[in-house]
UniProtKB/TrEMBL annotation:
Official protein name in the record: NCS2 family permease
Top-level lineage group: Bacteria
Annotated GO MF terms: purine nucleobase transmembrane transporter activity
Assigned keywords, A-Z: Cell membrane, Membrane, Transmembrane, Transmembrane helix, Transport
Keyword Cell membrane among record annotations: yes
InterPro entries: Azg-like (IPR045018), Azg-like_bact_archaea (IPR026033), NCS2 (IPR006043)
Length: 444
């Protein structure tokens, strides 16, 4: 009887039946998403540690901000999209702000906090919602495809299949590296399971390749299983303490970059994932305001605890691919982040080579949106194409979107269709010009 009530409660809360899904499928999707993005618990402390931040404190702040973001996204917006500190933002924080500009991490964290407050205000005033709804449908399809190619590229790179090259930028990696075969095996295993229409193919592939890695010794067994989460004392509230340092004019350039990059990274990811999940309605994302508020509040919470801005995670596409359609997926992911704080040693067995296979396969699913773009109209095709190639080739979602936003209005005017360009798109045109100029003059 109690079990029936629980199922009924979850069905009403997350509209499972309405979205043609169930608790089992959503739970599997949440687990798959968590496994695909759990690397951030180790990568974020590593990147911010270079800036001088306490790695243990950052680990805990990363987990807590992910928990807040996932639970808010699931309960408030009912979307199967996970939130955690973004990789691009932490790299900009460490290498551009702290190391290149010589700004102490404590002062830089004050800039993150200010950007987070402004981000939340923009969400509350529905400015972000208006901008996202004003993006033409063809550019939204291009965002989804561009993100798909991007995460496949990340997977190919993480698995060692594609590596850096001084002569040609990228080249085929060495197939003599044993761990690369974990990714290759995972790709074929997941692909075969997908073709056979096996439920949970991606998750089964992740688990199987993890076991294969442990059996062959390519993945090391953890030395212990349980450990206490480190204290956040070294980073908690530092941004608030150093707010007076915002009197420095160059800090406002930093704030603007954090604000704009986080704005469009999340916008692009949300739209792309909603397209993949089939959740868009009349070129609009239902409950987008609540989704953006969840993102903003998690970013604000993370800034207070001591981590760089959070964002919607493209790895959520792995969960969506196994059937995740509601906020229950995000809630499960959030609860697994809670468990991860006590069982963090176990996360080391899910290596980059293991998750890379899933990302590559998910990319295949996401590029299907290309068929919906009006390629026969060059004023549409050119901006869409630039978004699609811009995202993976610049390794940045915001830059790829910028390419499309900067060419779309001009070509639409040239085609005699200027009345179809909304005022918002013209505003974004000049915003991206300003963004790219500021990025160009900042130290690299």
């Amino acid at each position: 009887m109690e079990e029936t009530r629980t199922i009924s409660f979850l069905d009403r809360t997350f509209h499972l039946t309405e979205n043609n899904t169930n608790i089992k499928r959503e739970s599997l999707a949440g687990l798959t998403t968590f496994v695909s993005m759990a690397y951030i618990l180790f990568v974020n402390p590593s990147v911010l540690g270079v800036a001088g931040m306490d790695k243990g404190a950052v680990f805990t702040a990363t987990a807590l901000s992910a928990i807040i973001g996932c639970l808010l996204m699931g309960l408030l917006a009912n979307y199967p999209i996970a939130i955690a500190p973004g990789l691009g933002d932490n790299a900009f924080f460490t290498y551009s702000v702290v190391l290149a500009m010589g700004i102490p991490w404590q002062k830089a964290m004050a800039g993150v906090l200010v950007a987070s407050v402004l981000f939340t205000i923009l969400s509350f005033l529905k400015v972000r919602e208006v901008v996202i709804n004003a993006i033409p449908k063809d550019l939204k399809y291009a965002m989804a495809a561009g993100i798909g190619i991007f995460i496949s590229f990340v997977g190919l790179q993480g698995g060692g299949i594609i590596v850096a090259s001084k002569s040609s930028l990228v080249e085929l990696g060495s197939l003599t590296v044993p761990t690369t075969w974990i990714t290759i095996t995972g790709i074929f295993l997941i692909a075969v399971l997908m073709v056979r229409r096996v439920p949970g193919a991606i998750f089964i592939g992740l688990v199987t390749t993890t076991i294969l890695g442990l059996v062959t010794g390519l993945v090391k067994m953890p030395t212990h299983i349980v450990s206490m989460a480190p204290s956040m004392a070294p980073t908690f509230g530092i941004g608030i303490k150093f707010l007076p340092t915002m009197a420095d004019p160059k800090m406002w350039a930093v704030v603007l970059i954090f604000l704009l990059v986080a704005f469009f990274d999340t916008a692009g990811t949300l739209v792309g994932l909603a397209q993949e999940a089939g959740l868009m309605r009349d070129n609009k994302m239902p409950r987008i305001g609540k989704a953006l508020m969840a993102d903003s509040l998690s970013m604000l919470g993370g800034a207070v605890m001591g981590t760089t801005p959070t964002s919607a995670y493209v790895e959520s596409s792995a969960g969506i691919a196994v059937g995740g359609r509601t906020g229950l997926t995000a809630v499960v992911t959030g609860l697994l982040f809670v468990l991860s704080m006590a069982f963090s040693p176990l996360l080391t067995v899910v290596t980059t080579q293991v998750t890379s296979a899933a990302l590559i396969v998910v990319g295949v699913l996401m590029v299907s949106s290309l068929k919906k773009i009006e390629w026969h109209k060059f004023e549409i095709a050119m901006p869409a194409f630039l978004v699609v190639i811009g995202i993976p080739l610049t390794y940045n979602i915001s830059y790829g979107i910028a390419f499309g936003f900067l060419t779309y209005p001009i070509l639409m005017v040239a085609a005699g269709r200027k009345r179809e360009v909304s005022p918002i798109m013209w505003i974004m045109f000049f915003v991206f010009i300003a963004l790219l100029y500021i990025l160009n003059i900042l130290p690299k």
